[in-house]
Design brief:
- It contains 1 helix and 9 strands, in the order αβββββββββ.
- By secondary structure, it is an alpha+beta fold.
- The protein has one domain: Immunoglobulin-like (Sandwich), CATH 2.60.40.
- Strands 1, 2, 3, 4, 5, 6, 7, 8 and 9 form a 9-stranded antiparallel beta sheet that branches.
- A hairpin with a 3-residue loop joins strand 2 and strand 3.
- The longest helix has 21 residues.
- It is globular and about 60 Å long.
- About 12% of the residues have low confidence.
Length: 125
Amino acid sequence: MKIAIATLCLAALVAGAPVLAAGNHAHDPAHGGVVAAAKEADYELVAKADVLQLYVSDHGKARDLSKASAKLTLLSGKDKQQAQLQPAGDRLEAKGSFKVAPGTKVVAVVSDGGKALGTARFTLK
């Protein structure tokens, strides 16, 4: 009987381990944008008609973006627009005039210190 109880307790611990390992790793937008999670980082894109902002975190932890940059490609119907984002405090940013209608698809290619960090894909809401 003791072996059966011990086996059940061990099975419960093993089954709950992935939940504990995940911790508080939410993918909710912290800045009102659209979130994309990737292996190397989490990305949040805030897209407005006059500014594009890309927040990059190391799975919930702030990331130093002082040497980072990103190239965004916006695809809206037949229209294609590109923007180069540069560091602006805790985010990468570009100012200008952008077509950011709902349904616009955005591809972000992010570099950090001249090395490729990753790629994120978004669909604007």
